[in-house]
Amino acid sequence: MMKKSTxxxxxxxxxxxxxxxSVTWAQTKKADKCLVIVGAEHRYTQVTNTKESTQExxxxxxxxxEEFDSDNIIYVYSVHKALFLSLKGPKMVLDSKGMIxxxxxxxxxDNIITKEEVNAFENEDLIHFLQRNNTxxxxxxxxxxxxxxxxxLLGGNELAYNMYFIPEAIMGKSEKQKDxxxxxxxxxxxxxxxxxxx
Length: 198
Prior knowledge:
Layout: H1 4-28, E1 33-38, H2 42-45, H3 51-66, E2 73-78, E3 80-86, E4 89-95, E5 112-115, H4 124-132, E6 137-143, H5 145-158, E7 162-171, H6 175-187, E8 191-192
Parallel strand pairs: 1-2, 1-6, 2-5, 6-7, 7-8
Antiparallel strand pairs: 3-4
Helix pairs in contact: 5-6
């Protein structure tokens, strides 16, 4: 039978190792990767025929957010040029209605940029953010697979970033369309991650 002192020493060693392990995990928690969330806006998430199907994707995006250091997460919203008619005549203005984020999305910092282009990597604010953080590895999730997500992954890849995507945290027109797009992206050297791998 083990002595109480031996049991206490084993228990204390276990506790100390657990604390060290959790501190190390917290310090390295996706420290080398940046998470870019694109297109989680009402124009895509609140459409009548997709609102229900977006629930799982939003839940998965929120799960991914929890795995990253809050300083390494950036939210990208879109603005579009729209023709505005008034008594003074037509005028082009930036339409920010689409920027209304889905309330189900966890926003845990102020790292928010707006863009006019489909490819988020054409935005200088995003590039400066990545340079300041000395980031080379980037995970992209969000809406829509065949539009913002695909173009942003390709854009980052062209700029020599190591690009990753998580299928479960990306919305597409259909699973078949998503798989087709992801196959093309992997052929370009863009990496697929499972939500269980983060």
